Amino acid sequence: MTGATFLSKFLGMIYVIPFFALVGNEGGALYNFAYVPYNIFLSISTVGVPLAVSKFVSKYNSLEDYETGYRIFKSGMVLMAVTGFLAFIGLYASSGWIAALSIPNEPAKAEEAAFVIRMVSFALLVIPAMSIVRGFFQGYQSMGPTAVSQIVEQIVRIAFVLSGAFIVIKIYNGSIATAVGMATFAALIGALASCVVLWMYWRKRKAAILSNVNNQRFTYDIPMKKLFIELLSYAGPFIIVGLATSLYQLVDQFTFERSMTAVGLGEIWEITFSTINVYGHKIILIPVTIATGLSLAILPALTKSFTTNNKPVLFQQINQAFQIIIVLVLPASIGLAALADVAYGSLFTLENIDITAPLIVLYAPVSLLFAFFTVSAAVLQGINQQRFTVVSLAAGLLAKILLNIQLIHMFGAKGAIFGTALAVGIAVLLNLWRIHVSIQFSYKQTAKRALLVLIFSTVMFAVIYLLKWIFGYFLPYSESKFAALTMLIIGVIVGGAVYLWLAYASTLLERVLGNRVRVLNRIFHRRRS
Fold first, then answer.
1. What pLDDT does 294 receive?
2. pLDDT of residue 529
3. Residue partners of 315: CB distance under 8 A and separation at least 6
4. Which residues of the chain have pLDDT under 50?
5. Other Cβ atoms closer than 10 A to 384
6. Count of domains in the chain?
7. Does a structural domain hold residue 227?
């Protein structure tokens, strides 16, 4: 399941490289204008129910009450079909309004954005109900259907995105708006492919599932109203973390173009907007995805430690969850800042690199805040403080709403990054404070190791800059994409090796990651004591 989730996210990150080559900054901006409201409507329509169903079904299956889990599955399917249809109507009908708010100064471009939003809205007819089926299988401790359907959905979606955009632009010489509309419509095609996979699993397992239901000796016979109240109580926390990034991006969507135009930077708003919220965002999420996957794997055990009031183990697990983030994401973000120009230039374009690279330099460290928000929110859920996540997210979002326009007026496109950093930072600090006061958790150990990681990352940063200075004499990485890619590979390998050696030699990696560093014992030839 973890492997499938990571592969799915990784594919979702790398396909933007050929996608950029086809549609450029203009297409990236249009794509983001559609996907941000789509993700919000999707989250609202599902209200966390698919994940909550897995928890609900697992609970009642463990009590050998298979009928109750099956009842909530069937009713949940109907509920998700209805909410998905309402979400489709809502997004389709409001597409013109959303587009006009997003691009108030260019009516023709706003109409293109409305078309793209309408194209992606059709996926809402399928995805909510499809997600319930995944949740039901997970409730039976069966992760295969979710994992396989997730990968198939992503592969089919990406294939349709790239082939559709290629056919529209290269074969029929169509507009970028039409190509991006086809790309967003791919969300429906991918969802239908996932449905086919899930239907095949259902055919194989239906008999065994119904046999459990028909042969059980006891049922709690809980009224459906009470079941839904219980289900929604599980569902609430799941929606918060998923909505956070989309809400911050929605604030940018509604304020960026008008603010940039107001300060005389209207000619570069598309370049900077797509760099921050589409292409650059994909780059900074790569280390976040890896680190949060490792951290979140600790959380089931963390929940058990809290339930049994085993505080020493609980504190150790929370420390490990946070330290994994620091050990992996902090150096990755600093390394990306050092390699921002060659990373963006080799993966996307060297054109306007003097504008785009400084944005990546500033945005890279925000990845650490994104990772901390995800893990701290999950820790709050593990210690039964999940409701506070709503407070912290609301506080951060309010800061973003109140200050985003002023920050863009003061700093240009960089102001949007400062606004996001401030918003996520407030949410993270509030989450960490709540963890501290709820269980008297101390951050001393994590702070000490963070300082050590910062020192090692600074050494790595200096090494990378020295390499760029030396290679800059004979490698034109600011002019050639191949040279930029060569410099990126050299920087990543050498910089990464320097950091890994320092962290390994100091036993930092072993203390934080435990047995996961065995492979480095062979690389650096150190015997375990």
1. 65
2. 44
3. 439, 441, 442
4. 528-529
5. 11
6. 2
7. no
